[in-house]
Amino acid sequence: MTAYISTRDLVKEYVLGRERVRAVDGITLDIERGSFVGIVGRSGSGKSTLLNLLGGLDHPSGGQIVVDGTVVNSARDDELARYRREKVGFVFQFFNLVPSLTARANVELPMIFGRIPRAERSKRAREILERVGLGHRLDHRPSELSGGEQQRVAIARALSMDPALVLADEPTGNLDSRTASDVMDLLRRLNQDHRHTVLLITHEREIARAYCTRLVELSDGKIIHDGPPASTPTPTPPPVATPAASVPAASPAPESGPSTENPR
Amino acid sequence: MTARDGFRFALSNLLQQKVRTLLTTMGVVIGVGAVVLMVSGGIGLQRQVLKQFESVEAMSSIMVLPIKVDLTNWSFEPKQLPTPKSLNDRVIADLRRLEGVTAVYPNVHFHLPLSAGKRKIRVDVAGLPLEGVTTGLREAVVAGGLWAQEGAHVLLTTQAAKALDLGAPEAAIGKEVRFVLRSEREDDETGAPGTPADPGEKNGSAEPSAPPAVTPKPPEDCPEVFTVVGVYDPEKYKGFGGGQVFLPLAVSLKVRRTAGQDRGGFRGLKKGEYGELVVHVASPELVKGVSEEIRSRGMGTITADDLISQLNILFLVIEGFLGCLGGVGLLVAFVGIVNTMLMSILERTREIGIMKAVGARNRDVRRIFLIEATTIGLVGGALGIFGGWFVGVGLNLAVRLWLGTKGGPKDVSVFQVSWLLGAAAMLFSVLVSALAGVYPAWRAARLDPVKALRRD
Ligand SMILES: Nc1ncnc2c1ncn2[C@@H]1O[C@H](COP(=O)(O)OP(=O)(O)OP(=O)(O)O)[C@@H](O)[C@H]1O
Ligand SMILES: [Mg+2]
Questions:
Q1: Listed residues: CB within 5 A of ion ligand 2
Q2: What is the residue with the minimal CA distance to atom 31 of ligand 1?
Q3: Cα-Cα-Cα-Cα dihedral of B228, B231, B234, B239, to 10°?
């Protein structure tokens, strides 16, 4: 197991009354460092559950997760908190910014828990916000920002502790297509320029194909397909774009066509 | 998360909900304020009472009882109960010989109606030998003076003189007042036992300068009509008691016997026995030694120190009770804080999920909520102490005004906030609020981040 992330027979089971629901049902997966992996599948197929397990936000019911040599599945709460703080950056569909805090304070939040000195975290927050193009929005609160801007703040926050792993759960699900591609471009830049490993859940095939170096498709908590995006245009489900504003054909992601090869 | 960041975070959270924080804090203010006010009332009362014992006179007196009592147990020493020591003139002479003792005399103390013209009041009467007259009493005399020898003389209080309509203290001097010895108590037969042999011979002073009997049944040689020789102000007199009308000792014994009030004591007193003795010593430091010496002879003693420590215990109980009464307010405040914190957690569930997702440990979350609760207690406590003190000052003014209209003393402080009380109230407030934060903080820390993030 030399992969950066590797899971073995990962299971997450929920018990609802008498019923047992296996949201993740025996997933074995290896992900290389620096890859940009898309996770696709129908609603309820277990994508978010898998991502939460990988991010140390949830405890698996069984199986193993090793990230960068750290055994995540058996970690205690405090160790998981540290893992989330130092190795993982989450980006969510609904941004999940703290509404009472300014953009800068939101970006500082992980660093507060990481006990980074005040002056340094303030400086770092500004740098990162500038990097995502929000240098002029430092003191705005989330309610004073557009959706795209909020998501960029969220990405900046995810990056503030310089994590190796960025986990994005439908980051474009709440954005119009134009803004969505801005956000996706940003994620790609992080992946390519800064070598962050990115795991992206998306409903939008276009986006998955345009940006990911590898696609993993789930169904009922199991992997039903795994490979480079070109090989995935399987006919399985029609592009399920119902929940979000459907993707217009004018897919604005021209720069790097199908994407690069798996780096390294 | 550093403590400093925790504080900053908690504070900004509290300010996020200004009205709610204010209301919750008000609860603490009222609770702490009530505790402070109540207890400060108890302390004020305590100081007022203990002032009575602060004088050198009181601190150098010993009360002698026929049996040993243990004030700290509120009970008699059981073994001593069967054989009380007889307190008689021989004992008095004996005690007088003790080192440092300046005076020994029986404590004579009773109530009687006293009349002048048509006025009649009930007064506390005490017998006083010349040797027992302290400088404290002399300094409290505002008109006339003390008698030079035994006789039908009386030293009135300013209040008694006023109530008997004798005019200004100076005008009262030389006027006559009458003790009502046998008004409703005609049934007295055993009341005046036998001969008048026993009274104050040891005083060496002369026979009563017998004023002629006036009433139809003037028993023995007991005077009924007394001449006012002096008036003193009880407020100025610091010592045991105070507020009594004083008679010469020998006469007071006769009056008491005639009035049928000498049957007190732990059992019926035999002829020539006294219920209590008063011993004066030269200085307060001598009290302990002399008192022990007296106790070693099988008698009981009560000193100002005993009374003070006893009163202190009593007041501690009273203050505790008052504190608990005020504490009810604090209890309500406690519930208020718990409620506020729980509400706040409900509202901020998602935020807690975010904090956890970006790496907050459970203890970081716990700390934030604990600090929030404690901050409420800190601010509420400070304001409450100030408020309690402020109301107390106001009430003190009101009490003084009221006493002023009644001609009472003007330096009374019923409510007194000490530093100790302030510090204790602060500590208590912080402790209570921190305690109120424990459960909410625990709940918040324990939230499952995945569920918390899914919440809207
Ligand atoms: N706390 C829970 N208790 C019980 N069942 C749960 C719980 N969380 C998730 N599930 C179930 O697990 C399955 C997978 O859920 P998950 O959120 O991972 O799906 P998803 O692929 O992310 O779907 P979507 O695309 O709609 O976000 C679902 O059937 C869901 O009902
Ligand atoms: Mg999902």
A1: A 48
A2: A44
A3: -80
* Sign of the CA dihedral with B203 first, then B247, B104, and B283 last: negative
ipTM of the complex: 0.85
Q: Whose CA is nearest to atom 17 of ligand 1?
A: A48
- Which candidate from A52, A96, A110 shows the least CB-CB separation from B359? A110
Task: Among B4, B8, B349, B358, pick the best mutation site for testing chain A contact (most A Cβ within 10 A).
Answer: B358
User: Residue A27 contacts by C-beta under 8 Å, 6 or more apart in sequence?
Assistant: A7, A9, A10, A11, A50, A63, A218, A221, A222, A223
| Angle made by CA atoms B184, B189, B190, in degrees to the nearest 5 | 120
Selection from B233, B232, B242, B222 nearest residue B179 by Cα: B222
Sign for the pseudo-dihedral over CA of B9, B11, B12, B16:
positive
Q: Please name the residue ranges forming H helices in B297-348.
A: 304-347
pLDDT in tens, B351-388: 999 999 999 999 999 999 999 999 999 999 999 999 99
The structure tokens listed for A164 are 């190796």
- In this prediction, residue B192 has a pLDDT band, given cuts at 50, 70 and 90, of very low
Domains of chain A: 5-259 (3.40.50.300)
Summarised one tens digit per residue, pLDDT across range A178-201 is 888 888 998 998 898 888 999 999
Chain B, 330-389: which have a CB under 8 Å from a chain A CB? Answer: 350-351, 353-364
Q: Which ligand is nearest to the CA of A24?
A: 1
Q: In chain A, what residues touch B357 (CB-CB under 8 Å)?
A: 55, 57, 84, 90, 96
Tell me the residue type at B182: R
A257 class by beta-carbon count within 10 Å (0-12 exposed, 13-18 middle, 19+ buried): exposed
User: How much is the pTM?
Assistant: 0.71
Q: Is the pLDDT of residue B199 over 50?
A: no
Residue A114 and residue B453: Cβ atoms within 8 Å?
no
The answer, yes or no, to whether residue B350 has pLDDT greater than 50, is yes
CB B150, CB B105: distance < 8 Å: no
Secondary structure letter of residue A213 according to DSSP: S
Judge whether residue A8 has pLDDT over 70.
yes
For B291-338, how does the pLDDT look when each residue is reduced to its tens digit (9 = 90+)? 888 888 888 888 888 888 888 888 889 988 988 888 888 899 999 999
Kindly state the helix (H) or strand (E) to which residue B89 belongs, with its residue range. helix B89-96
Model confidence at B191, pLDDT cuts 50, 70, 90, reads very low
Q: Please, are residues B100 and B120 in contact by the beta-carbon 8 Å criterion? A: no
A93 lines ligand 1 (CB under 6 A): no
Which helix (H) or strand (E) segment holds residue A215: the answer is strand A214-219
**How many other β-carbons are positioned within 10 Å of the β-carbon of residue B449?**
25
Cα–ligand 2 centroid distance for A52 (angstroms): 10
How far apart, in whole angstroms, are the C-alpha atoms of residue B227 and residue B230? 9
- Phi, psi of B45, rounded to the nearest 5 degrees: -60, -45
Residues written for chain A: 264
Distance in Å, CA A240 to ligand 2 centroid: 13
Ligand 1 lined by A47 (C-beta under 6 Å): yes
Nearest to A138 by CA among A108, A107, A104: A104
